[in-house]
């Protein structure tokens, strides 16, 4: 259920008693190729639906992916944004988890759109397949982020 036009905007989601992707990888290690492909298909469908609803998640990461029996579920829309609304992000304020953020979330946080979620999807799938986030070797995305304008 979604009240994107309400004041304040709200969203209600179903509760799932399921582990997160980060819990599963910590417990069992990296996933095999078939599992990663199924995860990718499920998360792609979830992002398609999120974006069709006019939202951008802005914080897709392994701890925000529940692994339910019928496929992955994206949770935690605390920093989500309604795409058609004026961004509320203030200058100098970055929202999201640095190790899964698209570079534009650092350089242009007010303009972040659906493409940032797709970038994060790549990082989540990298984590599922290897047990490492895409920027773990550098210590932080800030080491490879473009300079802010």
UniProtKB/TrEMBL annotation:
Pfam families: Pkinase (PF00069). It comes from the Bacteria. Gene3D superfamilies: Transferase(Phosphotransferase) domain 1 (1.10.510.10). Keywords: ATP-binding, Kinase, Nucleotide-binding, Transferase. Its EC number is 2.7.11.1. Residues 1-149 form the Protein kinase domain. This is non-specific serine/threonine protein kinase. It comes from Streptomyces shaanxiensis.
